[in-house]
Amino acid sequence: MSKLDSQRESEAQGCPKVEHCPLLEEVELLRERCRKLEELSSIDALTGLFNFRHMQASLELEMERTRRTKLPTGLIMVDLDHFKNVNTLYGHEGGNAVLTHLGKLLKESLRVIDIPCRYGGEEFALILPNASLGHSVLIATRLRDLVRARPVDLGEQHIAITASFGVAVFNHADRDTLQAFISRADRLLYEAKNSGRDRICAEPPSPLAVEEEVTADEKKALFST
Question: From CA 145, how far away is CA 63, in angstroms rounded?
């Protein structure tokens, strides 16, 4: 559209000039508000991570992508250890500080393509596109060590925290539904917690995926965690 045509359209809407059109400015303002509302609907307000609703939608899309491309999707379930004790000792302010702290660590430490989400309470879900089992375990190991090494500052107090991790991978040959895949990772998470916490439990590599996805270095990582 030429500048003259744009001016005529604006004048037809009661605006003498395009650059000073109140109606167009109002439309742009409404669009920006809609964009922000849409963003807020998918973000957890406390941690700044994606929320449970966004997590489900994103994981379903990644599973479908895996079926099409044969590239795996990793899923790490994370749970803060002894979080109830944090709330008891430091109150809800301390609990919220710990959750916010973990959210920041996750956002800073993952790849750009990864999708960190707050699953609920003190549990988190990390969706890892194109991540094999060995790669997913390496990411979980790095995060476990980082959480352990970075206490939470609460005024003059420092809250030491640890987390447990369950690692599963969806491959193109898998027939799991969304909920079945989440349940696989969740069971591994609770196995890690029941085994003493501050550790990682990963499923064994599937026979069909070993040659495609597990390198020698990844095998070493899998069995030395």
Answer: 28
Q: If DSSP codes are grouped into helix, strand and coil, which group holds residue 191?
A: helix
- What is the percent of the chain with per-residue pLDDT over 70, rounded to a whole number? 75
Residue 122 belongs to a domain: yes
Which of the 8 DSSP states describes residue 122?
T
CATH number of the domain to which 97 belongs = 3.30.70.270
Q: Which two tokens stand for residue 197?
A: 């916490």
SS3 30: helix
Q: Which domain does 147 fall in, by range?
A: 49-224
| Packed helices 133-149 and 83-109: angle between N→C axes, nearest 10 degrees | 120
- Check whether residue 76 and residue 125 sit in a common domain: yes
Question: Do 106 and 22 reside in the same domain of the chain?
Answer: no
* Cα–Cα distance measured from residue 130 to residue 83, given in angstroms and rounded to the nearest whole number: 31
> Per the residue annotation, which of 26, 32, 39, 122 is the catalytic one?
122
Is 122 an annotated catalytic residue? yes
Give 26-37 pLDDT, tens digit per residue. 566 656 655 654
Name which residue leads in pLDDT, 133 or 32: 133
- The total number of structural domains that make up the chain: 2
pLDDT computed for residue 170 by the predictor: 97
No. of helices (H) and no. of strands (E), the chain: 8, 7
